[in-house]
């Protein structure tokens, strides 16, 4: 998928279109991530602003891309992702940070279709894989990703340093 191309398909009687996000979608992305945080009972952790998405997704050096799913012109889902690199395989890939489908569009298989769009986008760029992490308590998402063919890795653990811990790690 290039920035100038859209993809359309029919699923469960609905015509769904997919497109790469543009700068004017920053508020939409912000809202969908906020909705996802609310769904996960983690609303307090979503501190990003619309400006953060504008700057980091659509500025001089974009840090992420997103694919938007629309039904009848209404945005109903998105997948936000960024480049990754496997030092062991020596190949680039994509890391899915967030996948969201609005409650009104659930049952249309949009989650699977969004992942498929991301994989096709990566494949077109010569990439070799998709990675993601899922909240430990989100059992539904874990089952969904496994049904999509992703494998749970029991050989890795995700570690994060943010806020004060990040400053300490940086020697401040």
UniProtKB/TrEMBL annotation:
Belongs to the acetyltransferase family. InterPro entries: Acyl_CoA_acyltransferase, Diverse_Substrate_AcTransf, GNAT_dom. Transmembrane segments: none annotated. Keywords: Acyltransferase, Transferase. It comes from Cohaesibacter marisflavi. This is Acetyltransferase (GNAT) family protein. Pfam families: Acetyltransf_1. The keyword Calcium does not apply. The keyword Iron does not apply. Residues 16-172 form the N-acetyltransferase domain. GO terms for molecular function: N-acetyltransferase activity.
């Amino acid at each position: 998928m290039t920035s100038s191309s859209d993809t359309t398909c029919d699923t469960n009687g609905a015509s769904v279109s997919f497109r790469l996000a543009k700068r004017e979608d920053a508020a939409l992305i912000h809202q969908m991530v906020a909705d996802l945080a609310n769904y996960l009972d983690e609303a307090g952790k979503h501190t990003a602003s619309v400006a953060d998405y504008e700057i980091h997704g659509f500025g001089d050096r974009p840090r992420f891309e997103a694919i938007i799913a629309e039904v009848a012109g209404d945005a109903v889902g998105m997948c936000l992702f960024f480049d990754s690199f496997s030092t062991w395989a020596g190949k680039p890939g994509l890391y899915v940070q967030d996948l969201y489908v609005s409650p009104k569009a659930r049952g249309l298989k949009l989650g699977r279709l969004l992942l498929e769009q991301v994989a096709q986008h990566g494949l077109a760029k010569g990439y070799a894989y998709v990675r993601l992490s899922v909240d430990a308590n989100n059992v539904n998402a874990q089952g969904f990703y496994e049904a999509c063919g992703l494998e749970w890795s029991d050989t890795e653990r995700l570690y994060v340093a943010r806020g004060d811990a990040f400053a300490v790690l940086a020697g401040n």
